[in-house]
Specification:
It is built from five helices and two strands. With 185 residues, the chain is mostly helical. 32% of the residues are buried.
């Protein structure tokens, strides 16, 4: 692989702009840049989750998701470019079905808690939802391929299911249920 980055500190962003993949420059607070940043933050949080002990198939799935998110960020970085396909979404759909089949049916609301790995998966889920909202906002302002939005929607669902899986991994006791509190007064 060729060296892609020869300089990290270019100082070209000191004026509040950043370069896109097509060579154009835009403001750092532009909707496109915000969406790219949220996807990058999601990918970084997945990296933290991957530091935890995980079932092998979950680890492999999440490493694949990290690569997909890098592609998704690349697609957002180049207006009009497409990298996320229906096949990416189908892979998430299949993983969702596979992992959900192993879980008991939900009868109560659950809290984003439990094991450290499950809690980190919930953090990733919430960041995925934020990234999805950022892509929705971008799509309302500019033409955007619908697949990044669909991918992030499926991914947040999958991360919810994986949090439940991780709350059962290694002898953990399962979901942490929400308990409605009555007013004391």
């Amino acid at each position: 692989m060729a060296n892609r980055l020869s300089a990290i500190a270019t100082r070209t962003g000191d004026d509040g702009t950043t370069g896109l993949g097509d060579g154009t420059r835009t403001r750092k607070d532009a909707l496109r840049v915000m969406a790219m940043g949220d996807v990058d933050e999601l990918n970084s949080n997945l990296g933290v989750l991957l530091c935890e002990p995980l079932p092998g198939e979950v680890r492999e799935l999440l490493v694949g998701v990290q690569n997909d998110l890098f592609d998704l960020g690349g697609e957002l970085c180049i207006p009009g470019y497409t990298m996320i396909t229906d096949a990416h979404i189908l892979r998430l759909d299949n993983a969702l079905v596979q992992h959900n089949e192993t879980l008991p049916r939900l009868a109560e609301f659950i809290l984003p808690a439990g094991t450290r790995a499950a809690s980190l998966a919930h953090v990733c889920r919430t960041v995925a939802r934020r990234a999805e909202r950022a892509v929705v906002a971008l799509a309302a302002a500019e033409a955007v391929n619908p697949n990044p939005q669909r991918y992030l929607n499926r991914l947040s669902d999958l991360l919810f299911v994986l949090a439940r899986v991780l709350n059962r991994f290694g002898g953990a006791t399962g979901d942490v249920l929400w308990q409605q509190r009555k007013n004391a007064g």
